[in-house]
Known about the structure:
By secondary structure, this protein is mainly β. The chain has a single domain, classed as Hotdog Thioesterase (Thiol Ester Dehydrase, Chain A). 13% of the residues lie in helices and 37% in strands. Strands 1-2-4-5-6-3 form a six-stranded antiparallel sheet, with helices on one face. The longest helix has 18 residues.
Amino acid sequence: MMMADPLKEENSMCFACSKINPIGLKLVFEHDGDVCRTHFVAGPEHQGWDGVMHGGLVATMLDEIMAQWLWKRGIKIMTAEMTARYSKAVPIGEKITVEGQMVSQRGRLVEMAAQAILPDGSVAARATAKFLKIPPSKKS
């Protein structure tokens, strides 16, 4: 099965970045040099504990920011491994910034890092991940 390019699919239903997914996060990305960035304000529908964004959704955003960094540069990948560390709760109703950048690249393996930053500048969560480049499909 050929993997679609999510950056070119106007009808993509990606949970993190699709503009048309009715339950998606609808993240919009900006690329500033070596950093990919997005902003997000969690609503009550994104809660884990009362008043706090669900940690799984924070992890989703960390994964997506790293993947978007790579996709924007034309590197087709898939997440192979990700580790997330949480240090503070992400409050509902406050604008957070999520940033990602490349750490290293060797062969098919790309290592990335990301962080979710609270309005006061403190880091709520960090992630590191290994992505595998998808080999070009062979046409028959």
